[in-house]
Amino acid sequence: MSKNFKDREINVEPAMNIGDEPYFAAAAEGRLLLKKCQDCGRHHHYPRGICPFCFSSAVQWTDAAGKGSIYSCTVVRKGGSEPFCLAYVELDEGPRMLTNIVDCDLDAVRIGQPVQVTFKKTVRGTSLPMFTPTDR
Predict the structure, then answer these.
(1) Among 2, 8, 3, residue whose Cα is nearest residue 83
(2) Which of 6, 40, 101, 126 has the fewest CB atoms below 10 angstroms from its CB?
(3) What is d(CA 28, CA 31) in angstroms, rounded to the nearest whole number?
(4) To 5 degrees, how large is the angle CA 86–CA 92–CA 98?
(5) What are the pLDDT digits (tens) for 5-42?
(6) What is the pLDDT of residue 6?
């Protein structure tokens, strides 16, 4: 059975921490940013002022390719007006991010499936990175 689910209204705003402004400004432009440690060279997500691997404070914003694969997922069918897919996506750069899989048949979403970033707006207009399956 194939069914494209409707976009659900996103009426929850993300928590804004000090220093997150570049991340959301880039998302509004359709770009996904990650933090990269200048000492150990590893990317991380969520954005932090200190590298979670080597504790260096030499971290900088970098553009991500916006590609990855589904590491884990579940389809939530209760508690909202529309079902949605909550997933961890492992980015090509390495970090895993908690996100939604959108614009697809939720019954066809599978672990290991390649995905590409897309951006959805909340009711207040904040752009959030989400992912959609791709053929790659």
Answers:
(1) 8
(2) 6
(3) 7
(4) 20
(5) 667 788 888 888 888 999 999 999 999 999 999 999 99
(6) 65
